[in-house]
Amino acid sequence: MANKKIIGLYPGSFDPVTNGHLDIAKRAFDICDELHLAVVGNPSKRALFPVEERVELLKKTTKHLPKVKISSFDGLLVNYAREIKANIIFRGLRAVSDFEFEFQMALINRSLHPGIEVVFLVPNEKFIFLSSSSIKEVAKLGGNVKGFVPAVVQKALKRVY
Ligand code: ADP
User: What residues form DSSP beta bridges with 8?
Assistant: First the structure.
């Protein structure tokens, strides 16, 4: 991509955003000229937080990253990538268990949109075991999620549970 502006798209459920997501976002940010974080409004996954609140939480927790654009979309990821002229899709890889699904999606997305590259980033090892679903489980059972999610997300979880 010599001399080409790198426009990155990091999509996810972000239900809610965790420090693992933010670790990946920072790494993606350092690579891109422009980075979009986009909440997938996927109706097949039952979410705890409505899309608007997930967007809001992402906005609040990425204020330190200048010019990161936060949005949401429905439908095909590659269509959204085309719309915003993204040329890289970022995904985070935690463990081998993420790999098979991500690999399959990457190949499907590239066949739907040959102009896009999928780049996998690996988080700091302290976030390797962190997922939004485990955080929701811990919060639901009254556990302390400090250190795993930003303070605003902690508050949002407290409100829900
Ligand atoms: P999705 O429903 O798209 O998997 P998630 O919000 O669960 O949405 O994850 C979005 C992306 O962030 C995925 O690529 C996922 O692998 C990655 N991710 C989530 N948590 C972490 C973490 N702790 N470390 C690294 N990557 C992560």
Answer: 35, 88
